[in-house]
Amino acid sequence: MSLKLTILGCGSATPTLDRNPTAQVLQVLERFFLIDCGEGTQLQLRKNKIRPRHFDHIFISHLHGDHYLGLFGLLSSLHLYSRNKPMHVFCPPKLKEIIELQLKASDTRLTYELHFHELEDKDERLILETNEALVFSFPMNHRIPCWGFKFVEKPRPKSMRGEKINEYNIPFSKIDEIRNGSDFTDENGKIISNEELTLPAKETRTYAFCSDTIYDESIIPFVKNVDLLYHESTFAHELIDKATNRYHTTALQAAMFAKKAEAKKLIIGHYSSRYGDITPLLNEARSVFENTIAASDNLVIEIS
Amino acid sequence: MSLKLTILGCGSATPTLDRNPTAQVLQVLERFFLIDCGEGTQLQLRKNKIRPRHFDHIFISHLHGDHYLGLFGLLSSLHLYSRNKPMHVFCPPKLKEIIELQLKASDTRLTYELHFHELEDKDERLILETNEALVFSFPMNHRIPCWGFKFVEKPRPKSMRGEKINEYNIPFSKIDEIRNGSDFTDENGKIISNEELTLPAKETRTYAFCSDTIYDESIIPFVKNVDLLYHESTFAHELIDKATNRYHTTALQAAMFAKKAEAKKLIIGHYSSRYGDITPLLNEARSVFENTIAASDNLVIEIS
Predict the structure, then answer these.
(1) Which of A20, A39, A108 is the mutation pick for testing B, counting most B CBs within 10 A?
(2) B300 at the A interface (CB within 8 A)?
(3) Start-end ranges of CATH 3.60.15.10 in chain A?
């Protein structure tokens, strides 16, 4: 099993021709999650051949424009496509008011139900459970309230050892129970252990999205040991003062964070528009945390 | 003298990879006007090498997302660039509330003054006078309140006939008066007519932007005889029922409108995303109004 992350935008506040503002798609099995939705997300989805109707859940980290200004256009398009499935948006409290004001101004009654789920807690919180994954929010430390999100793939059932089905004459009706961990009692009352009947389930994967934030080690427990960690890296470390003043992080700090969190892999992004080539940021991060990659628009990463 | 129109977006509600939502830039001398500001306008400005800081005046026709969703991002970027000149936005009343709510949600106090001028009248109204042009608003007929804009180049001073300055010994201090239409009285009290002293001023040009609207001949008086008329043409005429239901216009109707308005030239746009190739819409319009051109993203039209 794998998670698939598509970077739709890796830029920061002022967009450039190469970098759209923040938006990402995480795919877990057939489930698509949209993480942030900067201006231009609709077109980026189209470029990446991801259909907006796949989404039932959208996560907005905070209300700086480069993280949500594409949302109203996307919701409007879904309305024009006559969507009828409910849509769930997990977001800071004020977004509901903004979207509802925009709907009112355009005299639009959506063809589908739109549910807002407010992010409020100061601690890690389970905000969503689907068949495929658990999603947690946790607080970042930015100029305005801001949250990160952790996506934990659910354990998958084990695989049956095919030859054991015949050997113990296991009825079809028992298969699901056994794949979920039960032992089997045959017609003579003999207990066959689950270990004998199954192959181990594949490991589950985790992805954590750390949106805009100052370097803050108190966030580490929320993302400990994740397989893939996205952490903003707006500036190179020589601009540490600017980063700190603006509640942002340097590439070096992102790598320190990943190292202390014992993440398996780090992906950096949210680059300031001052950087054309971001190789210096990548090198800086790799000097501390070797397994770092640099986000770029339309990059696809599989965590398998 | 010329007006220069740059099409930043010629699409309609659902953007495509070839067509951004509505936005245009009209340049009159050194003055830049931004007309509508759909999602992605910032990037389109960048592609067309037009700097956002050139603008002091933005005109928003109505509050369907494809006409204004790029505005907050643009205003935010100007703030990040530390703009200090005031910005004037001419728009439907509710936009002020939307932008102010977004500013509040992002805890942003702009580095510049932002003035909203509400469009309210049901008749033609002079909404702006600069050194270069007069701008009028007038009502369209759409599902929600919507306005069009007419830009009228101001008369330019006449040119002096150089040889007359010596012939009549005209002092430098009198030149401006004469260029603006005065006769000249020489030292002997003889009156020299303005016609003898000057060449006629070049004709002034007009551009009218007819945003989303159903076909409505009551709008014609507001745009009578303009040099260039933009009129939405969302559908081909075979979809006249759909156009009418949605308060939009067909290409054929746009051409009829231009013909009755005695416009010099028509530009059609705001095409439904169902049309890949818009040649049929262009041909349909030209069958009624020969001097029609089709908008496309990044097209530049000079009215000289």
Answers:
(1) A39
(2) no
(3) 3-154+204-303
